[in-house]
């Protein structure tokens, strides 16, 4: 919120002016109101591995994270470039693999990668789209210096929080929104529905000419993101289906309705690849639909995101993203990566081992902030334990410098206090183009000094504002 | 709509209705035992458990019938999968899994109801707080029903919601009558004796019917007119005839929507034949108990046919 010299940054000027005029005890009561709102409406997530899969709230902080129109323009150019490159990369990986032939990417990286699916080789997904929905995790390290921390190309979650956080803010502080010009995010579900419809199989577009039927496939109410699945289906006017609702009938994927089976054209699945089709992947899966991959390969249903896009989530692939962007777009990447050492490379491994106390080390396939080492905040003992793991299996790790992440104030009992944040904008991709919702989800590490923003580890969220010109 | 969702909605409203009716039955039983000696009290608790179909489950754990023990078992015992608490939990779970078929208002009513009853039933309910607690159960169910009425589209979802409500209600009314049917037989009408009019009052109270009945009958209290009222009165919303009128209407709306009648419609017509143009005398001649047993079986057949016709499960 403040520049290094202590002045209020341009983005926050309007908000700061408003905040200064508010009574502190009133703000405290608002904070309480927000929590009871979230609980009443059931905006919760389930935590895996806890005794009774208790439903928890993701803490919401009511101080917005604000981005100026100019900052956003530059950011969104970089995001669009990256998402286009990711999509081209997926197509290439499952077709001619030019990037490997050219020597820019080592083949072993995806040959040994569980997310890479041989079933997708040579197949063209409807509309040529692989990554219908992408979440790009960004961190800021200085004025106008955003770095990409991670690409989420499987099933990025959290977009319902982006929407609900905004609704909550508008309900609690209506006059604030009349003072500050914030770009709306509420049309995301409509855009998502349109974008998915544009990716329907050609037969549908030609055939009935009607509106494609879209369904959101959820693993069910015990999934940690179930609330979001129901929310998005509801907002899009799509059916929320579970695997047991779907069946392959007459070469189409169909859902069991009260009057019989009805074909589904586009499936926005929130089920992992592995569980999608017990006939093709994990035979024990009850979350998926037997035979859906055959229908998919016959071009008679769209699966979003396409199976096999998880390769791009991989942290070892991530380290090659600058090359990947350049290879497919012919341009220099607009958004830089965080420097990354691949521990598979002996020189890098040596450097990482020599500097463990300063680095962040992550598992290549890890997520959710688990299985990582944050050198500067770890004890000597923790570092040595991790060192042993690293030496035993260097291929499984990458390392990054500990960044001086930007902070954003949160509301605490003792007033405003700075905490580290990241930002996940949501990007839609269809034959009609790439669309980025202005803003995204800001996650915030609620513990003082902490760099881990994941909700499973005590992170919270904030409303994210992009100002209008 | 999805068959699974129709199933979830149908049962969500059955659970809500059953939770409410259980609270009503418990309140009437509790009141009854306050005015009678220990023998009558224990008899009354036994009949409450019989009505709820919980007698053997209860007896597997307890040797005697005390108010505190019975209430605890019915309301919140972990050993009773049909407890009010688990009913409310199941209703809420169903609401969650059918979240996109419900309006925000209905979901919030069910979710908040679950939150408040979960807190209320976290510990054993003290005798002094029992009425308040039973009142809260009824209120939460009423709020959900009100939100349904006031916010839901009159579409297929609403049809299954209402079918679940009235099918469960008809079942509950019939069961309450059947457990107490001997009190309503004309041969036992000792008009004016303290015991019987107390028992009759109790039957009426279990269905929240005491005021309506009195208002219509101006002080006359006899078995025949009570049975007539609870079975055949078209104005009383918990009577068998009333519930069936609602079910018939909802089923015919579904038929209109889908453009076809199914087995459920046939079963409904069969059940109607048993009820239509009947007088209470004819029912007594057939035998009240036999009539109620037939009714409950017919009701179950309708429920089974609905599940089948509308593809509730794979």
TrEMBL record, chain A:
It holds the Pfam family CP_ATPgrasp_2. Residues 64-445 form the Circularly permuted ATP-grasp type domain. PANTHER family: BLR5612 PROTEIN (PTHR34595), SLL1039 PROTEIN (PTHR34595:SF7). This is Circularly permuted ATP-grasp type 2 domain-containing protein.
UniProtKB/TrEMBL annotation, chain B:
InterPro entries: ATP-dep_Glu-Cys_Ligase-2, DUF403. Transmembrane segments: none annotated. Pfam families: Alpha-E. Residues 1-310 form the DUF403 domain. This is A alpha-helical domain with a conserved ER moti. It comes from Aurantiacibacter luteus.
């Amino acid at each position: 919120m403040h520049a290094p010299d202590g002045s209020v940054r341009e983005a926050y000027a309007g908000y700061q002016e408003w905040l200064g005029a508010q009574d502190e005890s009133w703000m405290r009561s608002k904070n309480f109101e927000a929590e009871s709102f979230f609980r009443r409406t059931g905006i919760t997530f389930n935590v895996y591995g806890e005794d009774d899969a208790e439903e928890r709230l993701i803490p919401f902080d009511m101080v917005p994270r604000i981005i100026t129109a100019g900052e956003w323009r530059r950011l969104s150019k970089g995001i669009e470039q990256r998402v286009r490159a990711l999509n081209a990369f997926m197509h290439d990986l499952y077709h001619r693999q030019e990037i490997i032939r050219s020597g820019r990417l080592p083949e072993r990286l995806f040959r040994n990668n569980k997310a890479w699916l041989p079933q997708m080789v040579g197949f063209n997904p409807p509309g040529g789209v692989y990554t219908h929905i992408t979440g790009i995790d960004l961190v800021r390290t200085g004025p106008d210096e955003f770095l990409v921390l991670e690409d989420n190309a499987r099933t990025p979650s959290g977009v319902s929080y982006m929407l609900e956080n905004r609704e909550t803010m508008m309900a609690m502080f209506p006059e604030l929104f009349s003072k500050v010009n914030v770009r709306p995010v509420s049309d995301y579900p409509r855009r998502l529905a349109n974008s998915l419809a544009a990716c329907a199989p050609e037969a549908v577009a030609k055939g009935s000419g009607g509106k494609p039927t879209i369904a959101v496939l959820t693993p069910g109410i015990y999934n940690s993101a179930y609330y979001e699945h129901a929310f998005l289906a509801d907002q899009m006017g799509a059916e929320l289906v579970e695997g047991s609702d779907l069946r392959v009938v007459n070469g189409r994927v169909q859902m069991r309705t009260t009057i019989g089976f009805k074909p589904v054209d586009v499936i926005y699945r929130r089920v992992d690849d592995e569980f999608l089709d017990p006939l093709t992947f994990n035979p024990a899966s009850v979350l998926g639909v037997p035979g859906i991959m055959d229908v998919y390969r016959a071009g008679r249903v769209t699966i979003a995101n396409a199976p096999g896009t998880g390769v791009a989530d991989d942290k070892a692939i991530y380290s090659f993203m600058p090359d990947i962007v350049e290879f497919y777009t012919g341009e220099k990447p607009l958004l830089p990566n965080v420097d990354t050492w691949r521990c598979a490379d002996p020189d890098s491994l040596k450097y990482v081992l020599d500097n463990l106390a300063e680095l962040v080390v992550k598992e290549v396939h890890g997520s959710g902030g688990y299985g990582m080492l944050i050198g500067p905040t770890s004890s000597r003992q923790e570092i040595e334990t991790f060192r042993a793991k690293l030496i035993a299996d260097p291929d499984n790790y990458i390392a990054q410098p500990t960044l001086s992440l930007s902070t954003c104030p949160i509301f605490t009992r003792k007033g405003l206090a700075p905490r580290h944040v990241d930002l996940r904008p949501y990007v839609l991709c269809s034959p009609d183009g790439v669309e980025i919702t202005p803003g995204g989800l800001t996650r915030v590490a609620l513990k003082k000094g902490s760099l881990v923003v994941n909700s499973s580890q005590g992170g919270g969220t904030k409303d994210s504002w992009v100002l209008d010109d | 709509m999805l068959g699974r969702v129709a199933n979830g909605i149908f049962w969500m409203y059955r659970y809500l209705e059953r939770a409410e009716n259980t609270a009503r039955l418990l309140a009437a039983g509790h009141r009854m035992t306050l005015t009678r000696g220990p023998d009558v009290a224990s008899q009354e608790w036994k009949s409450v458990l019989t009505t709820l179909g919980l007698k053997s489950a209860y007896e597997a754990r307890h040797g005697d019938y005390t108010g505190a023990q019975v209430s605890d078992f019915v309301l919140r015992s972990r050993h009773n999968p049909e407890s009010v608490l688990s009913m409310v939990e199941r209703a809420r779970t169903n609401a969650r899994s059918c979240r996109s078929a419900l309006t925000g208002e209905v979901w919030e009513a069910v979710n908040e109801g679950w939150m408040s009853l979960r807190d209320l039933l976290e510990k054993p309910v003290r005798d002094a707080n029992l009425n308040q607690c039973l009142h809260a159960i009824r209120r939460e169910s009423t709020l959900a029903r009100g939100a349904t009425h006031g916010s839901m589209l009159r579409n297929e979802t609403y049809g299954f919601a209402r079918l679940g409500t009235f099918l469960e209600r008809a079942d509950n009314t019939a069961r309450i009558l059947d457990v107490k049917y001997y009190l309503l037989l004309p041969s036992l009408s000792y008009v004016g004796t303290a015991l019987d009019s107390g028992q009759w009052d109790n039957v009426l109270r279990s269905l929240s019917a005491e005021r309506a009945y009195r208002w219509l009958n101006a002080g006359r209290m006899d078995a025949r007119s009570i049975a007539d009222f609870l079975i055949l009165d078209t104005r009383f919303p918990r009577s068998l005839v009333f519930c069936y009128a609602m079910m018939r209407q909802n089923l015919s709306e579904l038929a209109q929507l889908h453009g076809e009648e199914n087995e459920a419609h046939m079963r409904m017509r069969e059940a109607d034949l048993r009820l239509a143009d009947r007088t209470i005398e004819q029912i007594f001649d057939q035998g009240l108990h036999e009539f109620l047993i037939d009714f409950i079986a017919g009701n179950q057949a309708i429920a089974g046919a609905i599940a089948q016709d509308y593809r509730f499960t794979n």
